[in-house]
Amino acid sequence: MSKVYKTLARFTGSKKAADGRVRENEYLLKNSSHRQMLDISKAMVRSNPMAVALKDTMETFCGNLTPVKGNQESKRAFKEWAKCAGLQSGQSFGELNSEIVGILTWADCLVVLGSDPFALPGTVSARVKIIDPHSIETPPKYKDKGLVNGIKVILGVALDKNDIEIGYYVRKAGTDGLSDNDYEFLPRYDQKTGRFVSMLVRRPCSTFPGQVRSFPMLLSSLDNIDILDDLDKACVKDAFKKTFFGIVLEAPTLETVGGMGGEIKMVDSETGELSDESGGNGGNSGGAENYGIPKINLSEMDSGDVPIVPPGTEPHTISNDGNFEVVAMIEEQIKIISGSLGIPYNILSKNFKGLNFSTCKLLFDTLFRKIEQWNYGPVMRLFNEIYKWVVIEYWLCKGVLPTPEMWECDWKGPAKPDPDPVKTAKAHEMMLRAGTLNLSDIVGERGDDFEDHLMQKKEDEALWEKILGYAWVRPGKKSGDDDDDDDDDDDDDEKEEDEE
Length: 500
What we know:
This protein is of the alpha+beta class. Helices cover 42% and strands 12% of the residues. The protein has 15 helices and 13 strands.
């Protein structure tokens, strides 16, 4: 594994231009190493613990945006469509979102908005399909060439003469890619209708200017991953060795060990070095008189053997304690990798032991600054396109010509975990009284739509009164009290102070 990673590092970072900057795109294109990079990064996600932890962290917190501040019926229609949005097997949009985000940790992701041929008449037929990044390749017609009929293709991405992205070439399944007929062209937008068709989603900060394909997040940490892999192996070996202990038998004289079948090593009484003289018959070898008490090596014994030792023999055990802290070095490498990824170590390792409220809140604030780069960058742009054309198809199925007000909306990401909800609630209350926070902001922090929240609250209160026969009362209030009673009391107190 280490050799493969080091080869990858040479592929992606060894060729430099005259100005000293790395020209990744051209070098990857010439050496066809981009596919090798995808192969290695995909294998890491399957087997490397750090890559799996990174993928799981981003899938847990990133994406799953909620449409807010838009047409109410359009939002309901989209949420209903999202229950079975996948073209392949009817996956929910949430499942597709997690798959897209997971792919973005090790590559870029091509998302296609196709059509379900088996959709019922009068229903939204739009469905989402995700294309494997390995399938995005350059056809032979455009390989190692410049503009061909006003189009140039780099690593499967088609650009016009102005270097504007217009589509992607995807190699068909079961083909070798040697013929132009083995490829399908997917435009970004349909030329006749203008409908959105596909988008190559790239994570933020994953490309340099002029690049068309992105690199995996762990690319900058390959050397540290190699070290971490070696330390893991060393830790296992060290733990394995500590389950055993060595035994040395010390005999009073050389003659007493004859016939035991063990290998005899003479120990120099002055230097402590072992001699090369050995024997199993107890006879003195040349130079044996210069050595002290003999030691017997029983390392060649089979499991279950019980040696018979002569009288006066003393056993000595050898402890396998090791000479360095492997666990501490592993933690240090994980912290270095976490720093290069921009994800706090405690969140990546799921280790919150001994952390207080302020520290946990700071860690999640740090994580969600990166999450927001994803959510309100490539993820939101993709969601906008899908939402727009799903809503347009919905209204057309109803015989209504949609207007921009019907598909325009804002997006709200999921809420970050709250280490202490009681303290957070008190802080919200103080900010509401000071006028520095709105109720919609609090609801939005949970990833909910404020309008949906109010409508649900109204429905809950009406259902409460209908079934139980009396109105629902807010906690801390008595029946018949108004919500503004506290404010009135405050005003009365202020008037009395003014009069005094």
